[in-house]
Write a structure and sequence with these properties.
The chain is an alpha+beta fold and 1043 residues long. Among the domains are: 340 residues, 7 Propeller (Methylamine Dehydrogenase, Chain H), CATH 2.130.10; 268 residues, Cyclin A, domain 1; 120 residues. The protein is 47% helix and 17% strand. The strands form eight sheets. The chain has a five-stranded mixed β-sheet with strand order 1-3-30-29-28. A hairpin with a 4-residue loop joins strand 17 and strand 18. The longest helix has 149 residues. It is elongated, with a radius of gyration of 68 Å.
Length: 1043
């Protein structure tokens, strides 16, 4: 083991001398990174990632230094300093010199290892990124953190999609399946979903693991063919899922000392067609164990308890394992050394027996393996002759060099094995074929051919070869396109898909091997096939015909008699490589022998097939029968055909033997494929030019035809639209005429209905007016009757009270006369002395009488005002208003007449008083007082107490009338505006406004009342001035009684 220290160097060699890893551990080199002298501690490596070739990897330490280690070129280079720790790396991008690094600040950066410059900077995560998965094409990448996964386009470095999840369900890992467009997302609740990369549509979901298993998945690994998913976690159990059937098909229990699994990864193998069998499992003890998932056997392990492994990465080509150790260093292991014991070929079946007791003499027998067959020298009858074979030492060296194969195999041993068993073991057949053909596995060259895309010659291959399996068709199209990009002639070879299809079907899970096997077949076993292109290889067919003429003249003569040439009995077998006439097992046996012998052996197989089928062929006389025979399977033993081919190889003369005309086997060159130009270039170029011209003409024709079709479609569409438009116009005209007729009829009906409606409205209006008039008249008569009844009641009450007052007055007068008579005597005695007193009393009584008269007049005016208000409030039309005005005018005239009577009475009383004063002052004073009292009572017919009682009774009767009356009269000052406008029994459409009339009446009423007050005040002032009455004082009943 060698140890390499990166130190502070930016570049240098990984190892000083060529490493020779020990068989027991397979360790090539241990890489450490020590800091500067003032920093004695070493820097720890955190992440490792291989490139697509598997011959170089990048590694980042916890200070942000990123190195590229080239294991083939034996050098390392410091490509970037990010100044922060990296959390994930990816080095298998589409542009080989670029790599992705996820940093501790949750960002992703893309750097170039050649220019050491920043290519792009991507951000969008909110937590640490622990995984970067790159698509097989290198154009897309998925970055995964604990809360989200994001899909990036590495051409534009733009985010395409983002997977968001709830906080309760975390993400374990999201990654691409190898060589597939499927994305696998694994969550912490053991749910696993498969998504289509392009449309991001869920393809399927794996069922939950068994209930009895408490395993929580944390680590995952998938085989190269994408068929098997391995999942593990904190347990010693491994679950193997079949992604094709979506079922759990196996649970592997690891040793009990493994309590949890930290990392798992499959070892790629170039000979298992992507169905990897060896799985590396890293346990919690730091030891990575490699087991076979088929037989569940422990094969080997790396790491120790003292030097444990943190994580490991296996190269895509399966040659190296790079592990990050617990001490922060890197260990690089050789898978070939670790699996050396496992890949040992089986022991040879033929052994060399040598008799050591006898070195000379005729009885000496020696058996050796020479030339791929067991040769025994024949003993003569008399044992006297001895055959000696002398060989040139140079020829022996060349033969040994030819027989030496990679991987430690021997071609002669394989030929001996094949002759003994007739075929290679199925388990090791692909390995043996790849060893025999010495495939270089040029990943870069093959990917460059694939990157050129689908060749135009195979764009419509599905139309000519309708294969049921879309996957198989896609692989066939890619392989044919790669061959056409490799050499131009293969794009024009019509039978190439027929020749390549059996190999495509056999190696469908490893397209690189498929391409190189076909390419090796074309270079070696298809020699001189294209010299007469585009015609069949006449020279090869001539060789076959010469062989058939030498070994079976009868059959060839039969062919000639039937007009059948080699193009009919040999070329169909060659162009399909026997895939049409043999089963899968028979075909594999045939090509076991073809690949193990000289390229001329394929022609011998064709001749042997014809000779073995001689009996049925001699019975055929028609070309159609021969054509059918060589395009369909026939009943024959393929081992007989192979043995016959071996016989022909030995018995054919040198002059016609194809071995002398065909070159020996030449493998494909490494790193780049050889140039294939063994064909008439002018024909191919001319044909290519013609095809290109025809294609261009066809494209132009298609464009013109498309334009014509579009024009015709446009004309038809326009014609259809015009026809539809005319039909619509015709329908519209017809509909318009119908609608016009309907409208005319409806209009006539509407006019008739309007006439009828107007007539009905007129009748209703007349009836309404009549009803309103009748109702108004009835209401007016009712109101008139109520007023008359109220007036009659008031008159009766007044008359009754007048009678009662008259009686009371008469009684009071009698009492007063008696009192006056009684006082008369006393007064006469003191007449002289009391003259002045009587004069004063006379003046006081006169004043009281005047005041009472004025008070009664005022009360009468108040009563008159109240009656006027009641009458005015009860008027609702002009007729009632006029009647009320007449009544009010009548009352005013009566009032004025009474006032005039009162004034006349006062004047008469004054005149009479003057006369009585002249006669008898005392008598006159008493008579004047009595006369004034009688006049007052006669004019007003009630005293002050009766007035108050009469007022109360009138008010009570008014309230009763208001309660009984259907029309509730409310003072206009109290009624709201809506009530003033609304009068029951009167139509709201009446053409006169009661509000306006009411306002006019109220205004006139106020003016009238003001005029009455003014006149009353004027008369009172005149009376006071005339009789010298003191200011007004309300008289009481006691004064009146005394008076």
């Amino acid at each position: 083991m060698q140890k390499s220290d990166v130190g502070n160097k930016e570049s240098g060699k990984i190892w000083i001398r060529k490493p020779c890893p020990a068989t027991r551990d397979g360790l090539i080199v241990n890489i450490v990174h020590t800091a500067a002298e003032y920093q004695p501690k070493s820097l720890r490596f955190l992440n490792v990632a291989f490139d697509s070739t598997g011959d170089a990897f990048i590694a980042g330490d916890h200070q942000g230094n990123i190195y590229v280690f080239d294991l083939i070129g034996n050098k390392f280079t410091l490509v970037q300093r990010t100044n922060q720790a990296s959390t994930a790396l990816a080095f298998n991008l589409h542009r080989k010199s670029e790599f992705l690094v996820a940093l501790a600040d949750y960002s992703i950066k893309c750097f170039d290892t050649v220019t050491k410059e920043l290519v792009s900077w991507m951000s969008g995560h909110e937590s640490s990124i622990f995984s970067i998965s790159v698509h097989a094409s290198g154009r897309y990448a998925i970055t995964t953190s604990s809360d989200t996964a994001q899909l990036w386009d590495l051409d534009t470095f733009q985010r395409k999609r983002k997977l968001n999840i709830s906080q309760s369900v975390g993400i374990q890992k999201v990654f691409f399946l190898p060589f597939s467009n499927t994305i696998l997302s694994c969550f912490k609740d053991n749910s696993i979903f498969a998504w289509e990369c392009d449309a991001l549509v869920c393809k399927y979901q794996l069922p939950p693991p068994p209930v009895e298993s408490d395993l929580k998945y944390k680590v995952f690994a998938v085989t190269r063919d994408g068929r098997i998913l391995a999942a593990g976690g904190k347990s010693n159990h491994l679950h193997l899922w079949c992604l094709e059937t979506q079922q759990l098909f196996r649970i592997i229990q690891l040793p009990t000392k493994i309590r949890s699994i930290r990392h798992i990864e499959f070892i790629p193998d170039s000979f298992d067609a992507g169905s990897n069998q060896i799985l590396g499992v890293l346990g919690q003890d730091g030891i990575m164990r490699f087991i076979n998932i088929q037989n569940c056997k422990l094969l080997f392990d790396i790491g120790t308890l003292d030097e444990g492994i943190c994580t490991s990465v296996i190269s895509p080509n399966g040659r190296y394992i790079t592990s990050i150790m617990e001490n922060g260093s890197l260990n690089v292991y050789s898978v070939q050394v670790l699996t050396q014991e496992l890949n040992k070929p089986p022991p040879p079946l033929v052994k060399v027996i040598e008799d050591l007791s006898k070195k000379t003499g005729p009885g000496h027998l020696k058996v050796r393996v020479i030339g791929g067959k067991v040769q025994r020298p024949r003993k003569a009858k008399d044992c006297k002759t001895t055959t000696t074979i002398l060989r040139n030492m140079m020829d022996a060296d060349l033969e040994n060099k030819e027989n030496d194969l990679p991987k430690g195999l021997c071609k002669k041993s394989l030929q001996t094995l094949l002759r003994g068993y007739g075929e290679y073991p199925t388990k090791y057949r692909m390995f043996i074929w790849r060893s025999l053909l010495q495939l270089p596995e040029n990943y870069s060259a093959f990917n460059s051919l694939l990157d050129k895309g689908t060749h135009y010659a195979f764009l419509n291959i599905h139309e000519k070869y309708p294969i049921k399996s879309r996957k198989l068709l896609r692989i066939l199209q890619r392989t044919m396109s790669a061959l056409a990009h490799w050499s131009a002639i293969f794009g024009d070879t019509p039978y190439l898909p027929l020749l390549a299809f059996p190999f495509v079907k056999l190696f469908q899970n490893n397209q690189l091997v498929c391409f190189e096997v076909i390419a090796t077949l074309l270079i070696n076993w298809c020699q001189h096939w294209f010299e007469y292109f585009p015609n069949p290889p006449v020279n090869i067919l001539s060789m076959i015909e010469n062989l058939l003429a030498h070994h079976d003249k009868e059959l060839l003569q039969h062919y000639m008699n039937c007009g059948v040439t080699a193009q009919l009995y040999a070329w169909p077998l060659l162009e399909t490589v026997f895939s049409e006439v043999l089963t899968r097992e028979e075909w594999l046996r045939v090509f076991d022998s073809v690949f193990s012998n000289h390229p001329s052996f394929l022609l011998m197989i064709v001749v042997a097939y014809n000779i073995c089928c001689k009996a049925p062929l001699l019975n055929c006389n028609l070309k159609d029968d021969f054509e059918y025979f060589f395009h369909h399977r026939n009943n024959l033993d393929i081992m007989v055909v192979i043995q016959e081919a071996y016989r022909l190889m030995l018995c054919t003369p040198v002059d016609i033997h194809p071995e002398t005309m065909l070159d020996d086997f030449v493998p494909l060159t490494k790193s780049q494929y050889p140039v294939f130009n063994k064909y008439p270039k002018f024909i191919v170029n001319y044909q290519t030019q013609e095809l290109e011209r025809i294609r261009n003409d066809e494209l132009e024709y298609l464009k013109e035809r498309q334009a014509v079709h579009e024009m015709e479609a446009e004309i038809r569409r326009q014609k259809d639209e015009d026809e539809v438009w005319y039909q619509k116009q015709q329908l519209l005209r017809e509909a318009e005429n119908k609608r016009r007729d309907i409208l005319l009829e409806e209009e006539k009906k509407l006019i008739e209905q309007r006439d009828r409606l107007l007539a009905v409205k007129r009748d209703l209006k007349l009836k309404e007016i009549q009803l309103l008039n009748a109702s108004r008249k009835r209401f007016l008569w009712n109101q008139l009757d109520q007023r008359e009844m109220e007036l009659r009641r008031l008159d009766d009450e007044i008359h009754r009270k007048q009678l009662a007052k008259n009686e009371e007055i008469a009684t009071q007068e009698m009492k007063e006369d008696l009192n006056n008579y009684r006082r008369k005597i006393d007064l006469e005695e003191r007449r002289f002395h009391k003259a002045v007193e009587r004069n004063e009393c006379h003046s006081l009584e006169t004043q009281k009488l005047v005041e009472e008269t004025l008070a009664n007049a005022e009360q009468a005016c108040i009563d008159t005002d109240w009656q006027i208000q009641v009458l005015l409030k009860r008027q609702f039309d002009e007729a009632e208003r006029k009647e009320h005005y007449e009544e009010i005018a009548k009352l005013l005239r009566d009032n004025r007449a009474r006032e005039l009577d009162a004034l006349n009475a006062l004047k008469g009383l004054e005149i009479k008083k003057g006369k009585e004063d002249e006669e008898d002052p005392l008598q006159s004073s008493h008579s004047v007082a009595a006369l004034c009292n009688r006049i007052r009572r006669k004019c007003f017919n009630f005293d002050t107490d009766d007035y108050q009682q009469n007022q109360d009774e009138h008010f009570e009767r008014l309230q009763e009338l208001k309660a009984k009356s259907p029309l509730k009269l409310v003072p206009s000052a109290v009624l709201p505006e809506g009530h003033l406008n609304y009068i029951p029994g009167i139509d709201p459409e009446t053409h006169f406004s009661l509000d306006r009339k009411r306002e006019e009446l109220e205004k006139k009423e106020h003016e009238l009342m003001s005029e009455i007050r003014r006149l009353r005040y004027k008369h009172a002032q005149q009376a006071r001035q005339r009789y010298r009455i003191p200011p007004f004082r309300q008289p009481d009943d006691a004064d009146l009684l005394i008076t």
